[in-house]
């Protein structure tokens, strides 16, 4: 089967700058994909890695693909593509086959309520006060995610005490170090998890390569892997604890879709700040996870992306807005 590929670049600024132990994220750049067959059926994809090196790699690979493609060749080559490009192509092929969408109906699922990604800096505590007031009014539990490893351990330990003081008893807090701690620093935080059940898990506390250290920590408290899964994708099949899965960065999404349809648990769907085209996938996968054996709030970072046509649920509107 012959296919036609169109691409269109996009860029946008986040509403807030995200500072992690690995650096600052304030803009997103990438490409939208439109893949059509001879019957004019089409599928949409998004290619949007987070770092500059992967952007250059995807740029080169997209130009090498050209506009006229063989379906068989795409399927044979997709595993060798940069992961962000493999997501875009796999997403478009899946939609082209009507496995999520069909000719008469859109079967995209709506995302469940997301964990709240806290803003860095001085507004963090007032932000928690605001969310607490909102959720106390409805007596609804909520989940917060806090990026740690940005300041000194002493500063962040003091801040954690203030955060826990403000949080209601039915709320949860996830700590994400983005691989920025060493073993000594990570061990300093273990007691907090033993003392307060509102602490849900510690995400990627150690560098991605320190798998031995991560295993040892996981024997004491819940550990969720993120960066380690991208350094060593085989861990997605081996790690029995929580896995933070960012579909736009990890490759062909049909693999994760199959896992979730098979009710494999301990997956957490997380955003990489995508446009409306990629967000349809994030929402759909998050809904499948919520209906699986280990339901939990996804990490969709509500409020961090602009409110514009680029984030519409209609892919044609997103394409025109890019």
Give structural notes:
The protein is an alpha/beta fold and 322 residues long. The protein folds into 2 domains: 2-106, Enolase-like, domain 1 (2-Layer Sandwich); 116-290, Enolase-like C-terminal domain (TIM Barrel). 40% of the residues lie in helices and 23% in strands. It has 14 helices and 13 strands. It has helices at residues 52-65, 71-77, 83-96, 124-138, 153-166, 183-188, 190-195, 211-218, 227-231, 235-238, 247-250, 253-261, 276-290, 315-321; strands at residues 2-20, 23-37, 42-47, 68-70, 101-102, 105-106, 116-117, 143-147, 172-176, 199-203, 223-225, 242-245, 267-269. Strands 7-8-9-10-11-12-13 form a 7-stranded parallel sheet. Strand 1 and strand 2 (23-37) form a beta hairpin. The longest helix has 15 residues, at 124-138.
Tell me the layout of helices and strands.
Blueprint: E1 2-20, E2 23-37, E3 42-47, H1 52-65, E4 68-70, H2 71-77, H3 83-96, E5 101-102, E6 105-106, E7 116-117, H4 124-138, E8 143-147, H5 153-166, E9 172-176, H6 183-188, H7 190-195, E10 199-203, H8 211-218, E11 223-225, H9 227-231, H10 235-238, E12 242-245, H11 247-250, H12 253-261, E13 267-269, H13 276-290, H14 315-321
Parallel strand pairs: 7-8, 8-9, 9-10, 10-11, 11-12, 12-13
Antiparallel strand pairs: 1-2, 1-4, 2-3, 5-6
Helix pairs in contact: 12-13
Short key terms for the protein model shown above:
Enolase-like, domain 1, 13 strands, TIM Barrel, 322 residues, alpha/beta, four-stranded antiparallel beta sheet, seven-stranded parallel beta sheet
Q: What's the story with the biggest beta sheet?
A: 7 strands, parallel
What is the element string, with H for helices and E for strands?
Answer: EEEHEHHEEEHEHEHHEHEHHEHHEHH
Could you say which structural class the secondary elements and strand pairing correspond to?
Answer: alpha/beta
Q: Rg to the nearest angstrom?
A: 20 Å
Helical content class: 25-40%
Overall shape: it is globular
Number of strands: 13
**What is the helix tally?**
14
Count up the domains: 2
Task: Write out the strand line-up for the largest beta sheet, numbering strands in chain order.
Answer: 7-8-9-10-11-12-13
User: What is the beta-strand fraction?
Assistant: 15-25%
User: Architecture of the largest domain in CATH?
Assistant: Alpha-Beta Barrel
- Per CATH, what is the topology of the largest domain? TIM Barrel
The name of the CATH superfamily of the largest domain reads: Enolase-like C-terminal domain
Uncertain runs are none
Distance between the termini: 29 Å
CATH class of the largest domain: Alpha Beta
**Global mean pLDDT:** 92
């Amino acid at each position: 089967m012959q296919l036609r590929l169109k691409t269109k670049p996009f860029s946008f600024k986040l509403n807030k700058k995200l500072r992690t132990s690995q650096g600052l994220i304030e803009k997103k750049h990438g490409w939208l994909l439109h893949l059509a067959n001879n019957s004019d059926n089409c599928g949409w994809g998004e290619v949007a890695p987070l770092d500059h090196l992967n952007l250059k790699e995807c740029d080169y690979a997209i130009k090498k693909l050209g506009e006229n493609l063989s379906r068989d060749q795409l399927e044979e080559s997709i595993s060798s593509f940069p992961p962000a490009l493999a997501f875009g192509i796999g997403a478009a092929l899946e939609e082209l086959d009507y496995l999520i969408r069909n000719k008469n109906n859109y079967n995209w699922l709506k995302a469940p309520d997301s964990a709240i990604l806290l803003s860095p800096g001085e507004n963090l505590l007032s932000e928690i006060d605001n969310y607490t007031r909102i959720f106390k009014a409805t007596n609804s539990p909520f989940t917060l995610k806090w990026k740690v490893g940005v300041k000194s351990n002493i500063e962040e330990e003091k801040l954690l005490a203030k955060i826990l003081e403000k949080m209601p008893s039915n709320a949860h807090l996830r700590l994400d170090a983005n691989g920025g701690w060493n073993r000594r620093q990570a061990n300093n935080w273990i007691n907090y998890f033993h003392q307060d059940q509102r602490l849900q898990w510690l995400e990627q506390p150690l560098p991605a390569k320190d798998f031995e250290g991560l295993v040892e920590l996981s024997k004491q408290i819940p550990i969720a892997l993120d960066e380690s899964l991208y350094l060593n994708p085989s861990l997605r099949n081996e790690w029995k604890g929580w896995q933070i899965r960012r579909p736009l960065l990890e490759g062909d999404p049909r693999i994760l879709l199959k896992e979730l349809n098979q009710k494999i648990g301990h997956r957490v769907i997380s955003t990489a700040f995508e446009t409306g085209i990629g967000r349809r996938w994030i929402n759909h996968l998050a809904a499948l996870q919520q209906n699986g054996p280990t339901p939990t709030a996804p990490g969709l970072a509500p409020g961090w992306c602009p409110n514009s046509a680029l984030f519409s649920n209609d892919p044609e509107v997103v394409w025109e807005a890019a």
